[in-house]
Design goal:
This is F-box only protein. It is found in: Cytoplasm. With about 130 residues, this protein is mainly α. It has a single domain, classed as Monooxygenase, CATH 1.20.1280. About 60% of the residues lie in helices and about 0% in strands. The protein has eight helices and no strands. Helix 5 runs antiparallel to helix 6. The radius of gyration is 20 Å and the shape is elongated.
Length: about 130
């Protein structure tokens, strides 16, 4: 047995269990290791579902709409992961006390729809130290 191809000798259930323990970044990196890992990871929706459900905690409407539209868990994650990370930062108040648009780092600007910006605005207005503009 070639040590470089040990993965081919593992039962599929074991390989999926191992891959199922990985975070999103590690799962993506593992999929770039070789063709067989790529095929196994890309084509197994059960590996992507738990990560998608974590994204759903922040982007419920978007994930639910994508599921209704028939997207795979992997595609839903690709469509919503960056948005969920950015939305979570806004909702957690990370950018609450920035005084001017010039102070916003360009990296945080991510295209979001009006409903998402509405959710962020509501969260800002509920913050204890929010100052009303007179």
């Amino acid at each position: 047995m070639n040590q470089n191809n040990f993965f081919k000798w593992l039962p599929q259930e074991i390989a999926l269990h191992i891959f199922g323990e990985l975070d999103v970044q590690s799962l993506c990196r593992a999929s770039m290791t070789c063709v067989s890992w790529f095929d196994t990871i890309r084509n197994n929706d059960s590996l992507w579902k738990p990560h998608c459900l974590a994204v759903r905690a922040v982007c419920k409407r978007e994930v639910d709409d994508d599921r209704k539209s028939g997207y795979s868990w992997r595609d839903i994650l690709l469509r919503n992961y960056k948005k969920s990370q950015m939305k979570l930062r806004w909702l957690s108040g990370r950018y609450s006390y920035i005084c001017s648009p010039i102070s916003l780092p360009e990296s945080i600007m991510y295209p979001m729809d009006a409903e998402t910006w509405g959710e962020i605005l509501e969260a800002e207005l509920k913050r204890p130290n929010h100052k009303q503009i007179s």
